[in-house]
Structure formats: C-alpha cells, structure tokens
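User: Can you predict the 3D structure for this chain?
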Amino acid sequence: MYVSINHLHYSFQNGPYFSKIIHDLSFDIQKGEFVSLIGPSGCGKSTLFNIIAGLETPDSGEVLLDNKNINGERNHCSYMMQKDLLFPWKTVLENVLLGSTLAKENRKEAEKEALSLFSLFGLQGYEHHYPEVLSGGMKQRAALLRTFFHKKDLLLLDEPFGALDALTREKMQEWLLNIWMTMKRTILFITHSIDEAIYLSDRIYVLSPKPTNVLAEFKVDLPRPREKKVLLSSNYLRLKGQLMESLYHDYGKDG
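Assistant: Here is the predicted structure, written as structure tokens:
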C-alpha cells in the first residue's frame, strides 16, 4: 500500500480535561486512488489529517508512506484545509507560488511552470489579480492550484467545497475529477456529503463518532470518467442506501 494508517491512537488534554479523539484507527490507500472519509462533525477527521501531515504526533500507532514511518515528519504531502486561506495582499500567482518561494526554488522557472497551469485550473487572465475579485469557486480553484503546485503525490483535501453553494459545488466536483485524472495524484478527501463521496471516490471509509475508528469501507463500483447521470443509476442508489444505513444506524446509538 502507498499509505497505511496502523492502529492509530490520539488523545487531547487541556488542563484537567482529557478527550480521546482517535481509537485504534487503521486503513490503507493505494497510489493514485481517490479515497474519501465521511463521518460526523467533531469525530477527528481534521485531527487525522494533521497527524498524516506531521502537524500532530499520535499517542501510538504509525503512519506509513511507501513503508516508511512518517510520524511527526512534514513536507511529504500537500494539505488544503476547509478555507482557501489565500493571502489577500498577494496576487493569485504569488499565492500559488508560496510553496516554491518558501522552498527557495528558482523563481523564474517556478513562475513559468505555474503560469502554464492557470488555464487548466480555469484561472487564465487572473494571474495578477488579488483574491478579492475572485468568486468563491475561483478562490477554491486558486487554493487547489497552490496545493497541486506543491508537487507532492499525496493530497489531503479537508472539505474544500463545503462553503460553496450547491451549483458551484457540483461544478467544482466535476472539475476536480478532471484535474485528478489529468495530474494523477493520490487524494484523501474529507466530506460530510454522501453524494459527493460517491461521485468522487474509488473507495469510502465511514468513521465513527469520537473516539473515531473505521465503521465500514465501501468500494465505489461506478465507471470512470464519471458523469452526473451516474447519480441516477441503480448501483449508485444502492451504494447510497448502504452508506446511509452504516452512517445513521451507528450514529443513532449515541443519540
């Protein structure tokens, strides 16, 4: 496996308060896969991403990347959080080049390569504009371009479309699939939407309420390239029913 999460445990302590966030969590991702995590708010999905990215260290267990333990290590993945986090005082191009600037890469070469990607990300003509003139969808595309331009094979995307309206979100889903198939990266994706998870993913892991672990794994047996009409197919509706049963049956126990 390309990424292996093995028996991960993580707890958070703030003074006298102690909270167990992740309990014996294990799953795998193959190279080039699009895998989604779906679970209730506050179950530990973003904490898991922080651990994979090396921003947090687990109490026990390990994160393996190509069979190497990367607990506490950084700079092996690209991580896009829920908000676009574009710097308003920098142009779109300057925002995209942030990673290469920090890495002290050759400015002219990095700029030339970044500019060649603007049309692919639907941002041609906005290279020297500031984020304030961009629509919500364009800001997310700019943030995703910055994430892809970090040039790591593993991408962690934490609800990148959660704040968008329904129509923009659907367009962004189609666009992301095209980018993923073109650039051939490995994506781990957090979402609260069953429809989004099915439409985008090769596989889906359902996570339990806190302390989180894997409740179920589903393979999305739908053809690629994927079109929106697949959401009306019997295979899609059957899988959606199974996901809903897994989610709401187990969550209902705590309610």
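The longest helix spans residues 234-252. DSSP finds eight helices and ten strands in the chain.
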